[in-house]
Write a structure and sequence with these properties.
The complex is a heterotetramer, with 2 copies of chain A (158 residues) and 2 copies of chain B (110 residues). Chain A has 4 helices and 5 strands; from the N terminus they run βααββααββ. Chain A is globular and about 40 Å long. In chain A, strands 1-2-3-5-4 form a 5-stranded antiparallel β-sheet, covered by helices on one side. Chain A has one domain: 2-Layer Sandwich (Heat Shock Protein 90). Chain A has 158 residues and is α+β, with helices and mostly antiparallel strands. Chain B has one domain: STAS domain (Transcription Regulator spoIIAA, 2-Layer Sandwich). A 5-stranded mixed β-sheet of chain B has the order 1-2-3-4-5. In chain B, α1 runs parallel beside α2. Classes of the chains: A alpha+beta (158), B alpha/beta (110). Chains in contact: A-B, A-C, C-D. Chains A and C meet through β1 and α1 of A and β1 and α1 of C. β1 of chain A pairs antiparallel with β1 of chain C. The complex binds adenosine-5'-diphosphate (2 copies).
């Protein structure tokens, strides 16, 4: 499949979508609806879709609140792809301020914002099988999230 | 997203409708804090019956208000949370801090 | 707002989304859900949203059926933008076979496919205020559609 | 998207559920045509009660089947179409060719 996703195992991708939108708070809801609609192609459960929506909500909120510090002129990109093994790969990317100390950022309950709970990355990790973050100060952050909907024996709400 | 605020004696009831995410979290937090201070209200009830989605921004408002209310020895309740909201509340562990009931009536009958 | 939409009156755009996805039949439904979710930000009526969904369905179906002749490896792009005058601008773009005779293609009830009704462009025109098509054989087609949700006194279902 | 086919004497009833777009239009057209031919069925009822969306691909199947059925002097009916589907059917003018009823019962009672 002809895609703009370089370096992937192109053959196994059965569908993908690439979105780009500005860092407006109303786009958090929009983004999770769209990714939810995309994932529903997998015929997974409603619970699965709700979990993916939560993950998207966390990742996109982080771009707006942290990467762009609530400015609305930032660009956010999402790439979602489904593979023939019924797995979802999700990338949420910003071109904002980046994360200086990634280890600290990933600690449960750590937040640089006193009004927030530091639960975002915890949720992303809990509801996905894999999470991989690459970030460069002043250049931006890219969060890669993977989840397989087959043979999944994980207690998400333990 | 609609938020309805109602004061009954020294209790503030907050009824939320729709999706509780960052789009409304900040405004809701400010609005609740203003009402708590202005009217020297001690207790807080979050009615989440009509909430269809919550993420960490929404949870943050609830957990933060719990801390505030507890600091002045007030009580807080969550009411009417259904899936997927109920699951997220449990997942976050907030149900171990804040009693959860099915309806506002259940609290009045306590 | 920093966007990749060149040549637009950038100042008046209040929100935009750019999507890219392959020419798979399941993406027709996905595309109309997403554009529907995007347009719902305007607080327009449910009827308005249904009409926009129909228009997206027609434009995206044309890319798959005509531009890519039902191959699933084509790239489809949608750019939707909302302006501060409550207008929606929608571009649906493919890199497929293009339209040789645009005048003929636009005739109501004309279809190059005996199993189809030739109603696609008629619907797009009827439910939008403006339609503008540019096409190049072997290079692709871009359909630009505009609609204003304010002061609209048109009987869509006359 | 689900499609249910049922033959009652010389009438084929097609009950559709979900969104009637290009994803299922081709398959549905082939399936109906096969059944019309194999069983020498004359009449056709489209039950659209559970259809939430229709576009020109879906309309094409209906209008094309109308032509086929009319060619052998059969009759066709559309049943249960609600908005937004009903609006699109009216907009396309198909309601001037094909009688539209609210339920299958209405046709049986004719
Ligand atoms: N996209 C991002 N850009 C810059 N910093 C980020 C980004 N995402 C997360 N962070 C940093 O990581 C911290 C932890 O994030 P998270 O677990 O989502 O919690 P929260 O959003 O509640 O702060 C944030 O407080 C912030 O400092
Ligand atoms: N994106 C496209 N690429 C190539 N040809 C197209 C495209 N869209 C429309 N056409 C041509 O224009 C004709 C009319 O399109 P339309 O009004 O949508 O009717 P229909 O899809 O039923 O054929 C099509 O039959 C096709 O020949």
């Amino acid at each position: 499949m002809e895609t703009s996703l370089k370096g992937w195992e192109i053959m196994s991708i059965v569908n993908y979508v690439h979105f780009e939108f500005p860092s407006l708070p109303e786009n958090v809801s929009f983004a999770r609806s769209c990714v939810g609609a995309f994932v529903s192609q997998l015929n997974c459960t409603l619970d699965d879709i709700e979990e993916i929506k939560l993950v998207v909500s966390e990742a996109v909120s982080n771009c707006i609140i942290h990467a762009y510090e609530n400015r609305s002129d930032g660009k956010i990109e999402i790439i979602a792809s489904l593979r023939d093994d019924r797995s979802l790969e999700l990338t949420v990317k910003d071109y904002g301020k980046g994360i200086e100390n990634l280890e600290q950022a990933l600690q449960p309950s750590y937040s640089s914002d006193p009004n927030r709970m530091g639960l975002g990355f915890t949720f992303m990790k809990s509801f996905m099988d894999e999470m991989d973050i690459s970030s460069q100060p002043q250049e931006g952050t890219s969060v890669l999230l993977k989840r397989n909907f087959l043979n999944r024996d994980r207690q998400a709400y333990a | 997203m609609d938020v309805e605020y109602k004061t009954v004696r020294n209790t503030l009831v907050v009824r939320v409708k729709g999706e509780l995410d960052m789009l409304i979290a900040d405004k809701m937090r400010q609005e609740i804090d203003r009402r708590l201070e202005e009217n020297s209200i001690k207790n807080l009830i979050f009615n989440l019956e009509k909430v269809t989605f919550i993420d960490s921004s929404g949870l943050g408002v609830i957990i933060g208000r719990y801390k505030k209310v507890s600091a002045v020895s007030g009580r807080m309740f969550i009411v009417g949370a259904k899936n997927p909201v109920e699951k997220i509340l449990h997942f976050s562990g907030i149900n171990r801090l804040v009693p959860m009931y099915s309806s506002e009536q259940d609290i009045i009958n306590l």
